[in-house]
Amino acid sequence: MTTAPESPAARTAPGTSPARPSAPAPAPAPAPVPEPRHRLPGVLRAGWSAVGLELRGYFRTPDTVFFTFLFPVLMLGIFGVAFESSGDVGARPDGTGGISMAAYYLPGMVAAGLLLAGVQNLAVDIARERSDGWLRRLGGTPMSPVSYFLGKAGMILITAVVQTALLLAFAALVLGVELPSDPALWLRFAWLFALGIATMTLLGVALSAVPRSSRSATAVVLPIVLLLQFVSGVYLQFAMLPEWLQNAAGVFPLKWLAQGMRSVFLPEHFAEIEQTGAWDLGLVALNLCIWLVVGLVASRLTFTWQRRS
């Protein structure tokens, strides 16, 4: 009688235990999951991209750059040189405290720059894009209307900051205007600038509904902007205007923005020649806020994506 041969695994040396099967290899550690990037929401990201597109389009149009970006600088240079021979203005009875004409016109040009950047630039630009059908085609693109307006507002803010910095540098370095050294005055300038550019931006969007075509946009907007500058103390000394014209100018925001800027860049005793004999910064802020709300409401009520027949 024969027996089956033992398997090699079963044969062990005397006095030893049978071999055990090897343990399975450990499973590889899972790959680390990359942490999610903190990215802007889609609307904000598209709006940021739209800012770059708007800036490139802005600086590629020479007429827009001249009439809304370089125009205040050129006008300040013309007024500063033309009236240089007339001497200082606003001196006290003892002959001190006078400033040059370039220094006197600087705050008005700063306020006019915000008007041109916000009202004139946006009103003409949006009216042209509506007339050409670009806004109507916007619905077929990934860009949302919110991103479109973020791009416009971002472009206005950046160009206004650069324009104002260029204007102040030109006044100080070329025309010899002494800029304020008190930090409190620059803080006042900061909130006036922020409130002013926000107000002018919304008013520009609202005014864009007035022109019926791209051809009539400049003809409609430019006279309004020029008239406001002449009656609001930009090109003419506000104290020289008749009282009824001063009261009429007080209805519009540019007069208050120019008055606020004068409180920043002019000596304190110049407040005596204002209409009420003071800077009235509370009234400046109140009137700008009122026009901010007016611009917001008017934009919501009058803005359309398609050209009116």
Number of helices, counting only DSSP H or I runs of 4 residues or more: 10
Strand tally, please?
0
Helix content: 55-70%
Q: What distance separates the N and C termini?
A: 114 Å
The H/E string reads HHHHHHHHHH
Task: Give the percentage of residues in beta strands.
Answer: under 5%
User: What is the general shape?
Assistant: elongated
Major sheet = none
- Backbone structural class: mainly alpha
User: What's the alpha carbon Rg, rounded to whole Å?
Assistant: 33 Å
Domain unit count: 1
Global mean pLDDT: 84
The poorly predicted ranges are 7-13
Annotate the secondary structure layout.
Blueprint: H1 42-59, H2 62-82, H3 101-131, H4 134-137, H5 145-173, H6 183-207, H7 214-231, H8 243-249, H9 253-265, H10 281-302
Helix pairs in contact: 1-5, 2-3, 2-5, 3-5, 3-6, 3-7, 3-9, 6-9, 6-10, 9-10
Structure description:
This protein is mainly α. The protein has one domain (42-87, 97-302). It is built from ten helices and no strands. The chain has helices at 42-59, 62-82, 101-131, 134-137, 145-173, 183-207, 214-231, 243-249, 253-265, 281-302. The radius of gyration is 33 Å and the shape is elongated. The relative contact order is 0.13. The chain crosses the membrane at residues 65-83, 103-127, 148-177, 189-210, 217-238, 281-303. Keywords: Antibiotic resistance, Membrane, Transmembrane, Transmembrane helix. Pfam families: ABC2_membrane_3 (PF12698).
